[in-house]
Amino acid sequence: MQTVAGLLRLYVYHMKMGISSAMIYRADFITGIFVSIFVSGIGPFVQFLYFTHTRGYPEWTLNQILLFQGLLLLWFGLRDLLFGQVRNTVMDMVWKGDFDRLLLKPYPTVGLLLCSGFQLHGIGSCIAGVLVTVLAFHRLDVSINLWTVPLLIVALICGVVLFMAITIFYCSIVIMLIQISRISELFDRITDFANYPVNIYPLALRVVMIVFLPFAVWTYYPTQILLDRLDYGIWFALAGCVGVFYLSIKVWYLCLKMYTSAGG
Amino acid sequence: MDEIIIKVQGLRKTFKKLRKKEGFLSSFRSLLIRDFERIHSVKGIDMEIRKGEIRGIIGPNGAGKSTTIKMLSGILFPTEGTVDVMGFTPWLDRERYVRHLGVLFGQKSQLWWDLPPIDTFLLIKEMYRIPEEDFKARLNRFKSMLQIERIIYQPVRTLSLGERMKCELVCAVLHEPPLVFLDEPTIGLDIVSKETIREFIKQMSRDKQTTFIVTTHDLADIENLCDRVTIINKGTIVFDDSMERLSSYFSNRKVVEIKFTQPVEEKLLDSYKVISSGAMSVSIEIDTGEFDLKKVIFEILDRFPVLDVNIMNIPIEEVIKHIYSHEEKVVGYGEKVGVG
Amino acid sequence: MRIFLKSIHIALKVNLAYPRDYLISLVIYPFILILNIHLFTSIYAYSEVSHIKGYSLSQMIWYYGATTFVWIFIFNFTDRRISNYILTGELGLRLLRPVSLFQYEMANAIALRIVGILFEFIPGMVIYSLIYSPNFLTIASLLKFFAVVALAFVLNYVLNFIIGVTAFITQNNAGFKRLMGAVTTLLGGAMIPLDFFPGWLQTVCDYLPFKYLFYEPVRFFINHGDISTAEAFYRVIFIDIAWIAALYIIAKIAWKLMLKNVVVAGG
User: Fold this and answer.
1) Nearest CA-CA distance, residue A30 and chain C, Å
2) B25 vs chain C: nearest CA distance in angstroms?
3) What is the ipTM of this complex?
4) Domains plus CATH for chain B?
5) Structural domains in chain C (count)
6) What's the rounded Cα separation, in Å, for the pair C156 and C162?
7) Do C16 and B24 lie within an 8 Å CB cutoff?
8) pLDDT digits (tens, 9 = 90+) for A192-226
9) Is C267 within a domain?
10) CA atoms B84, B89, B90, B93: torsion sign
11) For A102-142, how does the pLDDT look when each residue is reduced to its tens digit (9 = 90+)?
């Protein structure tokens, strides 16, 4: 517990340093944010085009998918804000052969990696997400009841835990097994499945996305909560997140054991 | 002073290394079939280091130096052997052990590039939970010792290499660890910065009884800094003794440097073992076990137009070159033992 | 020409040293295709139509696969490499070579693409076909695709060359680069077929070169009904060449301007 508290404080300190760093290149940062908002807007725009030219996906209206896209962008933003820097840190470490340094710090290695994750640039996506979500709220009649907010918070926490797990898998593979930068592309293509409502997938894939790799907690379930059409699947998804996280930690320590006995 | 802080016994490390072949087809093949070879990087090391000591570890590239350091710092599991550092087994108690350890890699930086060093120091304060007052007191002391009062508030990217290295050094000792590993702490620095850094290390060792282990390729570091030297070659310790012992390693051999007032014909010097010669000077090596030094010198003074004579020990570079290139093992305290 | 071929040869050797970096694509591709299969099967089934905007289901699914293939044919780092030369001052060294930077970088880009075709396109094509049969493909359409995509490669190279050279104005602005990338892929038709755009935006795209990078090559790949005539094929080829010629002139002018500004100023 003391370790977790220490890591949290380190995270906050890294966050401060990240912000100071970004402020040094203020002009670049601000143009970056505007570009981010614009680029993030492409996703909803493409969805809008599909929906206006076809009947769209079963069970989803244009406004509902707008809400989904808004929450998706918001999630992208949060995800990058919290842990967006991890990939850069890892690749940097691999190029410089600097991983050993982490082993010399008095904290769990994987905790230190996650602590370095804060990336202020994620704010661009967040802003775009908020804009689209507000627009969707405006066009939809979203009913918020007593359970909505706590459920959303739980889903968010589990979503963050799941993303931490995915990041840990990424670190394990890149640092310990194969030093290929394109591994991140592979991870992106797999998590891309979360960019569409799970009900468009066949049953087997749906089960995977709700139970085993519960990407559904990131956007699908939060949208369903707001649209008041939640199903039991969410409980599997929440449990799944914790399970995947546990597994990722196991894998990390297994890789670490291999690394420290082979010597990089 | 005699308290032993590190005790190493029978340390061995064997790697499995992928055999790589040249060419396009074989790189395809290596995706499927992997050939391994065993590399004995460290072949049985025994060593003791006392508290407060500054120990130099040198050896040619690939001698097993850094593998040894990695095992001592807990990064690497050994194949065999035991290490006891302050009661810890580094690789088993890593997270708790490294709290008492400071490390500096001269070739790598832990400072944040865009921010002033003070931010990195504060991060370290957070990481090692250094109390506010201690942090302030230490930082003030280090600032004046290393003359970095001003630069720690300037972005790292604007600092010179020497200034950066001084700040790296502060990072390594800010939590006042009883044991510090320094890997090439003076690499690429100018003479003045080198001197400041060496003085700082000596002072820490005197004041706080901090133990330093220094690996370097710069012999001046060894000569000006270290109490004892361990030379590792081909995975074993080939020399482990005090600096004085190393500099008088060839105590029965002297180098005589002679300057002449006018050019001397080379042929006349044929009876001596000439190491190097110039137009008006020559260096001769004399084995004092074979010849009487006094006699030889008198003879030279007699025969040649001598301006100046200088008698020296064999230079330390020569000693180390000799030790690196010979399979001879010089264990313990001066006694020579042949190997194999 | 001999120097040019030699440069390609050397660059090939360099790029072949790390086949793993290319082979990772073979793991990535199936995920892209599987996602699109489910996405469009769902949309087509729900809309109860066989064609949307003239695309059959299998053509639509392959549209995105084909986009990745087009990437393999046209992708290069020329913009980044040239802007690096300019910003680091390495340019002076490069100018001393007996071959012009335009040709040298072109050789490099070609070599990079040869490796890409060998390690990514060919195996990727096999994998895709096994997962979802490309029933629209004919030998003629494939040959036409190769011709159009080869020109798309040159077009993209010249465009990248211009972007690289303009680094002396834009400096090292990551935001600008990202914006350019996004605009190229969106207006080039790599995100969604241009047919879905509103009319005015399609007209805008008609007057920009980007659609000849992705949209047109992809349509030849999936053998879209609109371009099955010989006339349509020659029309695309003609416009491609016209764009390349125009941009080549712009590239030369930009290059001269840059040399005046950078080299004379001392880099």
Assistant:
1) 9
2) 10
3) 0.89
4) 4-13+42-247 (3.40.50.300), 253-313 (3.30.70)
5) 1
6) 10
7) yes
8) 999 999 999 999 999 999 999 999 999 999 999 99
9) no
10) negative
11) 899 999 999 999 999 999 989 999 999 999 999 999 999 88
